[in-house]
Structures are given as structure tokens and as C-alpha cells.
Specification:
The complex is a heterodimer of chains A (233) and B (225). By secondary structure, chain A is an alpha+beta fold. Chain A has helices at 85-98, 125-140, 166-169, 200-229, and strands at residues 18-22, 30-36, 39-50, 63-70, 110-120, 149-156, 159-162, 175-183, 188-192. Chain A has a single domain, classed as Ribosomal Protein S5, domain 2 (2-Layer Sandwich), CATH 3.30.230. In chain A, 27% of the residues lie in helices and 30% in strands. In chain A, α1 (85-98) packs across α2 (125-140) and α2 packs parallel to α4 (200-229). Chain B has helices spanning 95-98, 157-161, 166-175, 194-209, 216-224; strands at 3-4, 11-12, 17-20, 25-26, 30-33, 36-39, 43-48, 51-56, 68-76, 80-84, 91-94, 118-126, 132-135, 143-144, 148-151, 178-181, 186-190. Chain B contains five helices and 17 strands. The chains are: A alpha+beta (233), B alpha+beta (225).
Chain lengths: 233, 225
Amino acid sequence: MSYTKRNDGRKFEETREIKAEVGVIKNAQGSAKFQIGETIAVAGVYGPRNLYPKFLQDPEKGVLRCNYNMFSFSVDDRIRPGPSRRSREISLVTQRSLAPAVNLNEFPNAVVDVFVEIIQADAGTRCAGICAASMALADAGIPMKDLVAAVGVGKVGDKIVVDLDKFEEDYEGGASDMPIAMLPRNNEISLLQLDGELDVKEVKEALEMGKKACENILEIQRKALKDKYKGGK
Amino acid sequence: MAKLLVKNKDLVVPGEVLVEGMEYLPAGNVFRDKDKIIANTIGLVSIDNRLIKLIPLTGFYTPKKDDVVIGKVENITFSSWFMDIGCSNLAMLSLKEATSEYIERGADLGKFYNFNDVVVARVINVTKDGSIDLSMKGPGLMKLSNGRVVNVTPSKVPRVIGKQGSMISMIKEKTGCKMTVGQNGKIWIQGPDPKNEKKAVDAIKLIEEYSATDGLTEKVEVLLK
């Protein structure tokens, strides 16, 4: 079955509408909200602070610890609250995609905690979470080599598309999605997962489209950060 | 040939390229990646001849020698106190540096500084592995009783103090509060009554919010009226 037109009228290489805001949680050292279409992620950063139990401490550099969680009301059908196999996996890939961007050498024996909460889900939650988390880390003042931008790419029917929504992920003609996270300055990829089937040519094409989308997302992230601090605030 | 991509006082975010070429040197809060100089935090660019650095607008306290800080006792061991001074590690105050009094062997150290006591102390040593030593010997260094502690972003402490202490002395004068500003962004306030204390806290919050705008002193003056 051929997929000639997208469900919401977007172009194939177009993302949904993106909104970003920094400083949404007052009690956190840094925080950010990232909305892409109907998917909303909020991230809070706490620390650097002491890490216990002590055997987890690293005397050479700080530890980055991420936690991903979906609110029970974030999806159509209620999701059981609390950690799950899925949220543990996403916590881990979030941590690994952010780790190359942050420099924690100044904080031996300490931990930087990142909490990502999904308050509304419409596919692409891990990418939204990573985008929010990287802005929150910058807001907290953690030394960073680059911001991290992430987006989902994939194949719906026979078309390579950027930023799949829930309808496209569940498309009856078959769909595969591939979330990617990038450090755009040096074109480094820090997250690459694939759910479904893509051949080498398709992966390359999807990556190219994802790169372009990440560059746009980076601009939005930078603007959101600057908006908060503009005027000396 | 070096290409300067930013101007003085530009606002930049992590990962932004400031300079291409080897003619400039990276100083604080920037780093070099091959021939580029890149920001690693949110801050304002400061160009001083060939030196490029960032004045951070966010972040936490990095202890320096001779800083006067405000700390809270978090832990007591048999020979020292450990204080929270707002950075990732606790700072150590040893017996020797704690007081000029004679402390008997095996004495209860809680009698001098107990848990949750707030003190003004000076940083005397910072080692590379992150351990911080404090001293209580010196003028103005003491245990604080009563009053309250408010936190500001450490990079905004100079604005709270003002030129030669102008801002802080104005707040002190107008509200009648006693205040001590720690370099770690903790400010201790003790006023004659809660109303004035509240006023001083509001003034500090205002300074923190509008720290880089013009006419800050006037804004604070209006608030304190």
C-alpha cells in the first residue's frame, strides 16, 4: 500500500509544530518543556549533589543519572504508573545519548539527576524527552560540549518520513521508526534505535532527513534558552 | 586568519562556536575543539584582547580560596564538622580552624557548632579532587543565630553587593536588617521585624531577576520605599 499523503497534511520531511520553554520548574536547578505536536515532555535537572550509595560514586568524574517516566494519563488508555521494562530502557538510552554532551569532570563523587516526565504522548516521546533534558542541563549550568537534538524518523507504508505521530506508527500498511539523537555541531549521533525493518539505503536516507530536522530543532532549543536569559534575567 | 563570530556581551548557549582560527585563546567557560572556540555554558561573551571567556548566567558555586561563604552543618565527626556550602561536595571545618577556644579531648563538638547551625566561614583550601577546607578564624566569621538564609545564583552575587557594597548597604540602611552575603550565593538576613526581613528578601529577588538591566539601583529603591 502506498502512503502518498500524510495524515495531518505535513510534508514528508517536515516535523510537527515544536514549542520549547526553559525554566518551567522553579525548585529544580534547571528545567525545560519540549512539545512536538501532541507530545509533551518536561525535564528537570537536580545537582550536582552527593551520590549515595557510595559504591556508585566515581572519584574521577560525576555521574549522570536519567529517569524517564510517563504519567498515567499521558496516553489514550491509562498506563500503569511507576517504572516498567520500557521506561527503564528509555532511561538508559536517554542517559547514553546525553552523556557525550556533558562534561562532569569538575564534579567527582557527585551525581547529576535528570528526570524526564511525559505528560502527553503521541509517539516520539523519547526524542522529546532528550530534547527537553538537554535544554534543562544547559539551564542548570552543567558544562556542555553541545546541545542534543533528537527526532524520530522512519518508514510509513513505502515512504521515508520525519517525526512519526501515533497514527503513522500504527499505520496498517506497516511502519518502522528509528529515533535518532544528535550533537549537531560535529554531526555526532548519540542515539540510534530501530523498531521495524529498513534496508541500508532507507537508513541512509532517513538519517539525512533526521539530520536536517535536528538542525531545525537545535535552533528552536537555542532560541528557547536565549529567551529565558535575554534582558539579563 | 581568525574569524570572530560573536560580539562582546553577546548571549550564547552551549555548543555555539565563538571563534574560528587559532589567534584567540580560550579562558573561562569556553573550550577549544580543533581550531574553534566553543561555549560550554549559558553566558555573556567577554573579549579581552586575545582572550575569550564567558560570564556565566547560570550554574552553581565553584569554591575558591579566600571566599567568604555561608554554610550549614550537615555532619559532625570526631575531629571536624562538614558543611553544606552549595556545591557538590561538603566542606570540612577542622578542630584546629574552628575556634580559638581550647577544645578538650573527646569533647562534644555539637556544643560548638551543632547540626543545622548556620555559620560564616572562609575557604582556606580547595584541592583538585574536590575537597574543601574551611576556617572560622578571622574577622566577621561566626555562627549565625536567628534570621533567614536566601539563595541567589552565585554568578549574581556581585550585583547583590553592588559597586563597593553600594547595593547591599542601601538595602541594609532602608530595611534596618543585618545581612551577610556569602560568595556561594547564600545570603543571611536578620531584621528588626518580619516585615522588613521580607522587604530585604524581595529586594534580593528583584536584583536576581533583573541583574543585567540598566537602572537596577532605582528599581530596588522604588521597591524599598
